[in-house]
Amino acid sequence: MPNPSRNVLLIDSTGRGHAIADLFQRSDPSVQVFYGPGNPSVADERICTVPDISLSDPESAVRFCQARAIDFVFVSHIDALSTGYVDFLKTNGIPTIGPDRAAARLEASKAFTKSLLQRYNVKTARFAVFDRPEPAKCYIRGLDYDVVVKADGLCEGNGAYVCSDQASALQAVDSIMLARAHKDAGNRIVVEERLFGVEISISALFDGKEFLMFPAALDYKRSDDGNKGVNCDGMGSLSPHPLADKTLYREIQTEVLEPLRAAILGEGLKYTGFIYIGAMLCDDGIKVIEINVRLGDSEAEAVLPKVQSNFVRLCEGVLLGTLSSMSLETDDKCYCNVVAAQGPTLRLDEHGREIRYPGWPHGDFEVGFPISGLEAVNCRNSRLFFANVRRDAEDTLVTAGGRVLHVTGIGDNYAQAVHHAYANIEKIRFKGMSYRSDIGLIYGSVDAMRQRREISSLPWTWQMPRGALS
Ligand code: AMP
């Protein structure tokens, strides 16, 4: 019997949102996705942008649901989740997937999450929490290991200061608490042990009782080539993670997901939807670094294209609490996502004086530049996901923010996926466009990789200069 067609409202507006909308329509032949506030540059006859829906006004979503026959709402933007969007929709009787406001603290407060992880024996770095700078500095002076200093609240991915010495850690405390670099998000800080190893991005869908694990990814969080620059939302990712084999997935299941599930249930958190767990594969096991209450972005653009299961059915499993009886089908391809961001630009003001914009994420950046070359992108070996792309008055696609778009290359191996990502992103142009040229290379972690598994057995033929395959 054919499945009945569903109307879904997706609350998001990012590249991740585009990837989720794309998964809905790609995996279900009849679903109609309403995407609010969405992104008007996303052109697909079964993805309809609803700009009247606001991330800060759940009433706008309720009105839309009452006017249209919406079967369920999927909320995946932290601005909405952290302010109780899901609570409001559910109170209005609308079937909704997403953590409620209390559960969203898993992302909105690092201190809350660290304490929860500790109480439920989820392995994580040693830490302490401070509300004032002096005790934090005193604590740092007494340590004989490097630390990461983190603002407690939401900081758009740049609130963690990974420090290589005591001086930079003390400086980080001052930046967050005295210079108030992250405003109120830095009223409280977490000082935690710096971990060394291989990072891994774990994604799973949760129905309030059980997790369904998605393919893991390797994320590139630093802004610049060579894994230099600042931590930002992410400049690219690979999926599956190069170390993802059955043994590692089993370890994630028993060492991370099961205790985390016990923590969520034990605290009575009302949580459904995607969860992202950033973790480090250390010599003495896997340790959790952070939790996001939605998919990671730029991981979503590399992980979700692998999924072959009908996502509407999986969401219905979440709503019914029957995810444990379902499985996830994925393809056997490799995916490499490279982010095209707004880099530095130079402009003359009305007096002919130069104004220099450092570009995202280093400072101010310009927007509104026409984007060309999109039609040349080969959709057989890559996917395009729009983050900050808009239409101007002439209906031209223009830039509208820091991370503009994502190009995800597809391949039978990592080398091909990386090659296809770069071969296609190089066709795209906008003023000041910048992207990392080294997504796919491994930094500082080869030794740790070698310890976990014989390096020669890894499919790392992609550690070759770009262009070698063309
Ligand atoms: P967070 O803001 O907690 O997501 O951290 C951002 C990034 O900082 C992570 O993806 C890691 O690259 C790095 N990081 C955070 N905590 C640690 C840690 N304890 N040890 C090493 N690196 C870390």
> Strand percentage, roughly?
25-35%
Average pLDDT works out at 92
CATH architecture verdict of the largest domain? 2-Layer Sandwich
CATH fold descriptor of the largest domain: D-amino Acid Aminotransferase, Chain A, domain 1
Choose one word for the global shape.
Answer: globular
List the total number of helices.
Answer: 13
CATH class of the largest domain: Alpha Beta
The CATH fourth-level homologous superfamily of the largest domain = ATP-grasp fold, B domain
Taken together, the total number of domains comes to: 4
Assign a percent range to the helix content. Answer: 25-40%
Q: Briefly note the structural class of the backbone.
A: alpha+beta
Number-wise, the strands total: 23
Ligands bound to this protein structure: adenosine monophosphate
Question: Any overview of this molecule?
Answer:
- With 470 residues, the chain is α+β, with helices and mostly antiparallel strands.
- The chain contains 13 helices and 23 strands.
- The chain has helices spanning 15-27, 58-67, 78-81, 85-91, 105-108, 110-119, 133-141, 166-178, 246-266, 300-303, 311-320, 414-425, 446-452; strands spanning 7-12, 32-37, 47-49, 72-75, 96-97, 127-130, 147-151, 160-162, 189-193, 198-206, 211-213, 218-224, 228-239, 273-282, 285-292, 334-342, 345-348, 354-357, 382-386, 389-391, 397-399, 403-411, 433-434.
- Strands 12, 13, 16, 19, 22 and 23 form a six-stranded antiparallel β-sheet that branches.
- α2 runs parallel beside α4 and α7 (133-141) packs antiparallel against α8.
- The protein is globular and about 60 Å long.
- Residues 454-470 have low confidence and may be disordered.
- Bound molecules: adenosine monophosphate (AMP).
- Adenosine monophosphate is lined by residues 125, 148, 150, 159-160, 162, 192, 194-195, 199, 221, 231, 278, 289-290.
